[in-house]
Amino acid sequence: KEEILSLPFLQNVKDNLDLDGLIRKILEDASMMKSFSSQDVEDYLIDTESSVQIIFSAPFKVPEGVQIDDVISTLNARYPDGHIPIPAKEVFDIVDVLGNDLQDDELTMIASAMLETILYTNFIINEVNYNPVIDFTTYTVDNYPYYGRNVQINRVVGNSFDFYNPNHFTYYFVVNKVDEYNGTVRLYGLPFEYDIQVTVHKTQIPYVTQETTSIDLLQEGHNGVSVEVQREIRDLYNRVISDEIVIFEFYPPIVEIIFHP
User: Fold this and answer.
1) What is the pLDDT of residue 17?
2) Could you tell me whether strands 209-212 and 256-259 are parallel, antiparallel, or unpaired per DSSP bridges?
3) What is the pLDDT of residue 4?
4) Contact indicator for 254, 218 with CB cutoff of 8 Å
5) Burial of 18 (0-12, 13-18, 19+ CB in 10 A)
6) Backbone φ and ψ of 138, nearest 5°
């Protein structure tokens, strides 16, 4: 028993583990002359809820026209405990799950934060649609806050956001209000025994300059950006088990137009 309990991946749950049940199952498999026994630790937790932790928390801005109180009230009416479930071994599609309750701009608001939280998991991202236009009246290419978490829901053209939970445990989101203009999405579940590193690679693309004889066509130029979000997952023995680009975004440069008589 002590040897099993000393395994690194059991350290966060060993006090909440039905070790005798786990050993019985392994011995049962051995008695049946199986060449190996593969068991899911989640199936042997005595109290699953006591092992649940915050996996990641991501902020979001409340856009003009959206009332955060209305969103929270709608979600609480649907989920009285505040938990938006991400079922084990299932696809979570935000339109399928919340489309009857929230409008597209409300879904877009929380989906961007949901995307940021799941980057730090082993969830498999299936569909992300994004707005490739940066509002340069508000942001620059350097301070734009949505790189790697840009989501746009538009049911008219079929744009949703979905991902797959490959684990044997149901995770869940909780949406919270910070103030009238800000909120957070928190992802809860069993902690991952992986080392998950997320890196956002940004490459600026220079704008070009064109000339015109019409002062009505003058405009300021802005660099574009290509974005790659890389997620590397290492096991407890520091072996790379996954290293991939999970998100790609492209924001085209804006042509500078100058006056030339």
Assistant:
1) 57
2) parallel
3) 53
4) no
5) middle
6) -115, -40
